[in-house]
């Protein structure tokens, strides 16, 4: 690329949609695209091998598709000898090579990246035009308007606004099925017999491009967590569409009922496994929701399942994005419970006697995946009850999951799971004893601990730490009407019992 280009369009690893706002007026005769693989994105938090592979492989496939259309792409390979290792360094080099009049990009999903690219543009005296991300149903401005003047933000209100705005699952102004929310029907467990006839997951054998990336990641990030033996994530739009089709046909009808259920050794259950393809923008949430709603309309899936699924994407996904962008950069530093314990080492190995944690962490390291309740009520809950520094918890979640991008990971971790924003995102801390895990899974049957015991050799650490958490935070929690029942149960414990629990909890924390 010797002659100056008109626009250099920046495309990040999670912006792999050819219809992105940054590309609507792209002219291959005058413009060029910039994409860069850099080590910093795998090391600013320690990224698992599966996560790094997903990003790099999907980027390479996307760049190949652009090049096949003869679109000029200025692409930095991770192992190129002159790779500077940072997005800022690679962008500077690309600007020197292409001498653009202007930089254009779709709004990124990470505050840190936005700051870094902005500062390169200003150092180079270039305008960086940032366009709305049309992938989402709402804009950050709409969320900010919704939030203005509200003392508390709640998913339910924002979700209903979006249902009305989009007409999704609406009959005029009335929600289809007569209710906005089918959550109470969506809390089933598998019962003693466990799940049967689970559909196999949709996995894709690595092609040549992915094989190259697998070798590169194994060599360059050898010490990073996780393994690559089972890599099978969709890395192209075609694969993502196949995964969507198979989810709608085989899993969606049971998605609602078993949304919260867990079962030892069963990784995939009835979840969609689409978060990664959605967050890389290989799939558009509109086509995902349309496919689910059509399945309801043709009688293939019940309203409970379809509303439950729509709520995750039209509701939670949009809501957490609004929380992130209206509260950054301060949000990252929040730690309202003043929690400072270190994340236990076993989060990086799965080496623990606690069967539920062992299972969730092992599959996380193997596949870069765990479903929502494993993240919220197993790994997240334990860190919350133990009092781990939320920044360390955040670094773990951002590093280990294939679908992790900061705009969606941070509010889920810091707000929903660790309650470290003091209730901005969630109306109460998601705290429970081991009995909750026992009710929703079969983990406790094969565990050396007993979920019903809070003290003694067999005490379940979740149960000990649960009572201790309520006791330590009782004054603060008493202000929250949604916590009154749990506090009432705490007050049934004698002072001696509370003291013994506090001693055993301190022991757990010191390990
Ligand atoms: C501590 C913690 C960290 C999380 N980190 C991430 C993350 O980095 N990236 C991510 O996409 N999700 C994250 N989530 C949300 C959720 O757990 C995942 O989206 C989900 O488990 C992905 O699996 P799936 O695609 O099979 O989802 P399904 O259960 O099939 O749900 C369907 C889709 O709904 C969306 N969704 C569901 N729940 C949420 C939610 N709470 N917030 C936003 N979108 C949601 C996802 O796009 C998902 O693909 C996190 C949740 C917790 C509690
Ligand atoms: S007994 Fe406690 S630690 Fe063991 S599986 Fe059940 S909840 Fe997890």
Brief write-up:
With 511 residues, this protein is mostly helical.
What report would you give on this structure?
Helices cover 47% and strands 5% of the residues. By secondary structure, the protein is mainly alpha-helical. The strands form two sheets. A five-stranded parallel beta sheet has the order 3-2-1-4-5, with helices on both faces. A two-stranded antiparallel ribbon has the order 6-7. It has helices at residues 40-43, 49-68, 87-98, 111-123, 140-147, 155-166, 208-220, 237-250, 252-255, 275-280, 285-297, 303-327, 355-367, 372-386, 390-400, 406-417, 434-440, 461-472, 474-477, 484-490, 495-510, and strands at residues 7-10, 32-36, 73-76, 102-106, 127-131, 170-171, 174-175. The chain is built from 21 helices and seven strands. It folds into three domains: 7-131, 3-Layer(aba) Sandwich (Rossmann fold); 140-199 and 251-327, Serine Threonine Protein Phosphatase 5, Tetratricopeptide repeat (Alpha Horseshoe); 345-510, DNA Cyclobutane Dipyrimidine Photolyase, subunit A, domain 3 (Orthogonal Bundle). 47% of the residues are buried. The longest helix has 25 residues, at 303-327. It binds flavin-adenine dinucleotide (FAD) and iron/sulfur cluster.
Number of domains: 3
Q: If you average the pLDDT, what whole number results?
A: 96
Distance between the termini: 58 Å
Number of helices: 21
Number of strands: 7
Bound molecules: flavin-adenine dinucleotide, iron/sulfur cluster
Quaternary state of the chains: single chain
CATH class of the largest domain: Mainly Alpha
